[in-house]
Amino acid sequence: MTSKRSFINLRRENIKHRIGMIFITFFFFFLSMLAFLMSVQNICGRDIKTEEIIKGITALSRPEMGMGLLSMGAAVLLAISSFRYLHSKTEVDLYHSLPIKRREILYIMLTNDIVLFVMPLAIITVFRCAVTATVGYLSRGFLAGSFWSVLCYTAIFAVTYLTMSLAMLMTGNTFIGLLGFCVFAGYSPVVLCLLYPALASTFFITYCDTGTNLEIYSYFSPVSLANLLLSGNNVWKWEEHIVHFATIGVWIVFLLIINYLLFERRASEMAGKAMAFPRWNPVIRFLLVIPGAVYVGLGLYAVSFTSFKPWIIAGVIIGGFFIHGVIECIYRFDVRGLWSNKRQMLASVAISFLIVAFFWMDLSGFDKYLPREEELSSVVVDGPYTIDGHFWGKQRNGITGDTMKGTLKILDKIIGENDNNKDILDSGTSEEARGYSSYRFNYRLQNGRVEKREYILSPKLQDEIMEQVFDTMEYKKDTYALYTADWSLVTDVEISFPTCTEMLDMTKEQRSELFRIYLEEHSSLDYKTVKNTLPFGQLMISHKVGPSDNNYYSGMAEAETSDAYYLYPSFKKTIKYLREELKVDVKTSMKDISITSLNVSRYKENSEDWESLDIYDEEFIDSIKERLCYGDSLWLYGVEQAVDTSVDITATVKTESGEESYVVYTDSETVEKMKQQGTFE
Amino acid sequence: MIEIKQVSKSFEKIEAVKDIDLKIRSQYIFGMLGTNGAGKSTLLRMMAGILKPGQGEILIDGQSVWDNPEVKKRCFYISDEQFFFPNATAKDMATFYGRYYLKFDYSRFEELLHKFGLDDTRKIQTYSKGMKKQLSILIGLCANVSYLFCDETFDGLDPVMRQGIKSIFAKEIDERELTPIIASHNLRELEDICDHIGLLHKGGVLLSKELADLKCNMHKVQCVFPEDVQVPLYKMFHILQLKQKGRLLSMTVRESEEEISSKMEDLNPVYYEILPLSLEEIFISETEVVGYDIKTLIY
Predict the structure, then answer these.
(1) Domain spans, chain B
(2) Does the distance separating the beta carbons of B69 and A91 come in below 8 Å?
(3) Cβ neighbours of A3 in B, within 8 Å
(4) Looking at the complex, does the CB of residue A14 fall below 8 Å from at least one CB of chain B?
(5) pLDDT tens readout for residues A355-375
(6) Structural domain boundaries of chain A?
(7) Closest partner CB to B100 (pick from A88, A92, A98)
(8) Measured between CA atoms, how close is A89 to chain B, in angstroms?
(9) A58 Cβ partners below 8 Å, 6+ apart?
(10) Which of A330, A458, A466 shows the shortest CA–CA distance to A406?
(11) Is residue B18 over pLDDT 50?
């Protein structure tokens, strides 16, 4: 066994031959120091409060992506420079003939590389603290941030380094080693993660992937996990990354063990070959060829504008043969290897076919799936304009009890008609497809799983399902976030009604009161009213993004969005409060507004061109005024049952300053009357 | 002593070394002869602990060499294409090896460098191929090890240099019991240096003998007997090869010069002459006996 003293000598000797790597590592860290200096100078130079400066400088100490990428880059380079000797016969002969145990060579390389990374990292951390102290903003928060940064970057370095070294150990050529690293890094979060969604969205007509949590795939890739460790909402918090840290720790231990075992077992004669453990070659080939062939099949189908599914078969054959051949050529470093191992090639293509066939023929019954009543705990119903991620209220619980049972019966019909409805929406004329919409249903099962499906509903089925669910508080709480949201997140409330939009200037108490009164009236709103009554205006509620995990805006700094809440003539208390307490001159109808003309436009049948109709008949306009409601595209959300969206209507209104145009909506009956006023040109 | 016991090694489907049993005594210069692909380098790399035998084991002074630093401290492997660090000088390489071979003799290294005319401040990458080979031998010698494994190290060295190295080897063998094991495909180069020769072919050992034994016990005899005399030559001599041209008989005999002379005197031939055999001729005869045509094996 080598003594401790000679180990130091051997490590020093190893370092001596890696001057280039030391220079590169230090140079990049030096650049990061410069970047830090510039950021500090920039923050200190701003005309902002001291607390804001401290906040800004403290934020600089926290883990961030730039340094994370630098750590990953350093890890890859250091691992290559250490383990590259295994890929050269002459160097292997030199190192493996030396009187030193193999594991000691590994130990020297690992410890030296850690020192080569940690030393400059420690230096720049001390430098950063010194700079911050010099400008007078060194805080406990900065020190804590620096500590977590060092820990994060070291973990990222270690896991990336060990992944790269594993790739170098498993191969006999540095280029192939780099390819191997890419496979280790990307196989789970890219190849596997996207395979199911790609197949399901191609073959299952009821598949909807929004909000599906794919993060789990990142846990199977050490490099992707390192990326997760750095991600976060605006401010990096260690509490949010405990699981990532723990998983990276497990990966580090696992990779250390596997690296050690492979280093001990790696045959010296594999230097210069493509792969160092030929027994694993078929396994690696299968793992790459099968998904690769499926992707090529789907790719070819996409290139054909998803017009002809047999292209998938052609793609699987071409992809299977090609990818298998390329891997064989790499294994052998010989283009003539293209047709080697034909049996395996055929087996891979056959398995790829089976996978495609499984989805194509829907052998799992995905599209016909309807859970049994006893399996279900609730059903969340989303209309066509509801986006999961926009919801900023508390958790959506879905409908339960008798409403759920009734919904299941309607769903049975929906599933039965779905194929036909999909055809109508995709291939039918615009007249045939009018009113057809997609609805999403989340089946929450008793076992905790959630199955999501998207169906195309005819207007009749839409009515049936809405009549079943709309009147329940469960549905309203799931659809209108204001019921359960944290109102302190609200930033602004704007009111819009015919020809007027204004920001409501009110206290927090007034705002709460407005919301309370509005929701009281909204909770008693029934579907019949919604379907037959046009709202006269809307409350636009702007709010910060909520804490929901599946938030659409997750990761966006200071994200804000807004929801529309409609005002119906029946909301007497709300109108009264707006008028009397908030002094808003609320107009509940367009009947007192002077409309000089109406322009109705629509797409020409089977064409991308527009045609329009202008109506100037004052008498006619006066007769339908009350059926018009003012709005923009946001109106559609939630009132789609009442308005006819097959045409765009613009009303020209006489105002004090001249004439102005407004987008208006109306119901189907009024649209039909308008169409009879002339011909579209 | 190096003991190679039933050692085999395959590279995927190619069997490079097959069931080799060999003993190499200490303080001998062992020459390992064979064609390209005969398994010389593989065997040497296994002896140096670089490659792990697929089967069997290699013992050096009674201990297995594989991943055993205690044994490897006594061995130095010189590859056919020795690796030198980029931009390194001879001195840098000596420092590097000195970290691993704690008995490395730096003063002797300087002395030998000077003797061989190698500049220790010049980058090795500017050396000629022959100079690099000389440098690797010098480093190996100065590492002060007991076993020096040289893989085609002498190929390409000029005869003067070979003789110089041979005399250093002789001195080292006397002074500190060095055992050089030299692999080569060139019989004439080994003949100058080695005491013991092993012939490898297709991964196996065809023969392994001391050079002196081979030379002393094998002779070429040319003789002419009277016309009416019938001589039972095969009964009297250990004949490996016999050729007749008219009345002149030429035979290769495995016997000492004294034994042949005494038997010839008894037979009273018209004429006889005993000639020594070159190493090449000895190998041709020996391998023909075991059914090989040496000319196709070595040349």
Answers:
(1) 2-210, 214-298
(2) no
(3) none
(4) no
(5) 999 999 999 999 999 999 999
(6) 4-185+218-269, 284-360, 373-479, 481-580, 595-675
(7) A98
(8) 9
(9) A137, A139, A141, A142, A145
(10) A466
(11) yes
Contact between B83 and A94 using a beta-carbon 8 Å cutoff: yes
Residue with tokens 């100037």: A616
- pLDDT of B289 reads 67
Minimal Cα distance from A90: which residue of B?
Answer: B83
ipTM reported for the complex, 2 dp? 0.85
Is the separation of the CB atoms in A87 and A177 below 8 Å? Answer: yes
Interface of A with B in 50-109 (CB under 8 A): 88, 90-94, 96-102, 104
Instruction: Say whether A96 and B49 touch across the interface (CB within 8 A).
Output: yes
Question: Lowest-confidence range among A295-309, B61-75, B229-243?
Answer: B229-243
The minimum CA-CA distance between B47 and chain A, rounded to whole Å, is 10
**pLDDT per position as a tens digit, A505-514:** 999 999 999 9
Query: b/e map of B50-65 (b: 16 or more CB within 10 Å)?
Result: bbbbbebebebeeeeb
Q: Give residue-wise pLDDT tens across range A52-93.
A: 888 888 888 888 888 888 999 999 999 999 999 999 999 999
Give the sign of the dihedral formed by CA A55, CA A60, CA A66, CA A68: negative
Chain A: residue whose CA lies nearest to B151: A93
Is A269's CB within 8 Å of B11's CB? yes
Look-up of token digits 């041979």? B166
For residue A422, the one-letter residue type is K
Q: CA–CA distance from A179 to each of A153, A173, A275, B289 (Å)?
A: 24, 10, 11, 54
Please give the CATH superfamily to which domain B2-210 belongs: P-loop containing nucleotide triphosphate hydrolases (3.40.50.300)
Are A73 and A178 a contacting pair, CB within 8 Å?
Answer: no
Report the CATH number of the B214-298 domain: 3.30.70
Give me the total of CB pairs closer than 8 Å, taking one residue from chain A and one from chain B: 61
Nearest to A90 among B67, B75, B81 (CB): B81
Backbone phi, psi, residue B250, to 5°: -120, 125
